From TrEMBL, chains A, B:
Entries under InterPro entries matching the protein: DDH_dom, DHH_sf, DHHA1_dom, Oligoribo/pAp-PDE_c-di-AMP_PDE
Protein name per the record: DHH family phosphoesterase
Listed GO MF terms: nucleic acid binding
Signal peptide start and end residues: none
Domain DHHA1: 249-332
Stretches assigned to the DDH domain: 25-150
């Protein structure tokens, strides 16, 4: 740890020890790192006898309700004036920009005289807090929270530890993403020595899904099309399917990995009909020479060379035909370069 | 580490240092821990200047051919008499019983005057070697090999390290199984500090699959049936599907996890038509009170309370009806108990 990080840790540690009344939140549409970091810090502060209000613009996703204390995270519309009394410090966790906390969360602390602490691992974070602990080398905000608590001699109770484990595990794709560091494994080794039940919590985190997600995968596989010599794989999600299966917004997340992983596939594309009739396109490339951002730019979208998106006019079959033709052009350009 | 384990490590370490000419192998139908342990020890011995012959009864599965040095693992029919000259020590890795090495491998060393070292993590291992290092607390044989090499001051070259990582990662289900220990995370932390490219090797290990496996999943999902109030999920794999998709024997492995993970499901059952017309049944329970071994015993099978199997007479629809009726009886008995 560098000197400046050590000082920052101590500065935040002092606030956590000396002040009372903490408001904690994370980004809209929260994932495992968002909820895990809020609970990880929140339950540790509660164990110190502090008053804590944990809030979330969009509540807690059903898939994370198994975390102990998740019922303490208040959905913003349910926040009462009494809950806000005496809050002194706002801690924003895993939130790259202040608007990403959500309008409702911002309304709870902006111009209320609270000190803002900003703890995050996104390199793009513009340091919108009064104190900013941004460590882009950490694969998860949960890992920063763990190191912060430990370095300041603060306790990490079991519920806090479990939540921070889920934060780290989900944001590293179960310790598979390139962002995973040696420190990540050391932290989890210490958690395991401390009593973490790795089998149980992994099973709750990864081996549960609603039936509708399995039916969604079936539907997508049934419309999977391979083209350009099996180098391009694509599928489409229709509004009628969303209604039939009663899908929730996050249900299709990560499903593109199923087709991206096919050996022959270089580009995977997911077409999704939106309620307004527009088509959301998500594309992934496995070859740095095949730039899907170039393709998405042609349709007013953008992103990175290997992961990009766009919104196109419908109908979906027309959008699919146009987009896949542009993918073919990009594949041809890459093989000629 | 206990004194006796320390002595055992030293005893094996001395053999590795003092002798020359090593034959290494693992169990038939090798998985990541089998091939990873063989390569992990084999490449370390080669780096020490030792003569090493690595063999496998069934070769190396295509999914593991990305491991550096995997081309040095000789498929048993390709072993020549010259390769066997001067071999002094046989090391069996990750192999619970001697016959599990395969007939061809046994023929290479039995009655040839070789010293046999048996390194494994299966509790049922009857200690068939001259020296036996059986550590059932280790989630993977690869983890034992790593600790052995490190404790004896032997080098772990990059290829060896990568192979041992894959051994550990695959045998812990990417660090999710209950068998994963704090030591597991410490070992991987050390490997990462030592230069392991976690993103690249995880991608090669987990994010590649042949198109036929995706088509197999589609076929299974299309015949998925939920019964008993969505508490029982089952699907069937027909011989005609195996032929149409040109499946290999291991292609259907682990697919039952897709339906086991459905929230409402208590029992998941996989019916597979075998070339001889018999039906292989694999069943999983998620509730300790619902004993699928009881069900399988009725059809001459067996196993554990939460994972059991049986072979039944065909045709497959008849077997499916009979087996699912017995599952219903077990569910009823469990809810009455």
């Amino acid at each position: 740890m560098s000197d400046s990080v050590e000082l920052l840790y101590k500065q935040i540690g002092d606030v956590l020890k000396e002040r009372d009344g903490f408001l904690l939140s994370a980004h809209v549409r929260p994932d495992g790192d968002a909820i895990g970091s809020v609970l990880g810090l929140g339950l540790a502060l509660e164990a110190m006898g502090k008053r804590v209000l944990m809030v979330s613009e969009d509540g807690v996703p059903a898939s994370l309700e198994f975390l102990k204390g998740s019922d303490k995270v208040v959905h913003v519309p349910d926040v009462t004036p009494e809950m806000l009394e005496g809050l002194e410090v706002m801690v924003a966790l895993d939130t790259a920009t202040q608007p990403r906390l959500g309008e409702g969360v911002n309304a709870l602390f902006v111009d209320k005289g609270m000190q803002v602490i900003n703890i995050d691992h996104h390199i793009s974070n513009p340091a919108y807090g009064d104190i900013n602990l941004i460590d882009s080398h950490s694969p998860a905000t949960g890992q920063i929270v763990y190191d912060l608590l430990k370095s300041q001699g603060l306790g990490v109770p079991a519920g806090s530890r479990d939540a921070l484990f889920v934060a780290i595990s989900t944001d590293t794709g179960s310790f598979q993403f390139p962002s995973t560091t040696a420190r990540t494994f050391e932290v989890v080794a210490a958690m395991t020595r401390d009593g973490l039940n790795i089998g149980e919590i992994s099973s709750l985190t990864y081996h549960r899904q609603p039936l509708r997600k399995v039916r969604l995968l079936q539907d997508l596989l049934n419309c999977l099309e391979l083209s350009s010599g099996d180098r391009v794989a694509s599928w489409s999600l229709l509004n009628s399917t969303k209604e039939r299966l009663e899908l929730l917004p996050d249900d299709s997340e990560d499903l593109i990995d199923h087709i991206r992983s096919i050996d022959s596939v270089v580009v995977a594309v997911f077409f999704e009909e939106l309620p307004d009739g527009k088509i959301r396109v998500s594309s992934r490339s496995k070859d740095p020479k095949v730039n899907v951002c170039n393709v998405c730019l042609k349709f007013g979208g953008g992103g990175h060379a290997m992961a990009a998106g766009a919104r196109m006019a419908g109908p979906i079959e027309e959008a699919r035909t146009k987009f896949l033709a542009a993918v073919d052009d990009e594949l041809a350009a890459a093989s000629n370069s």
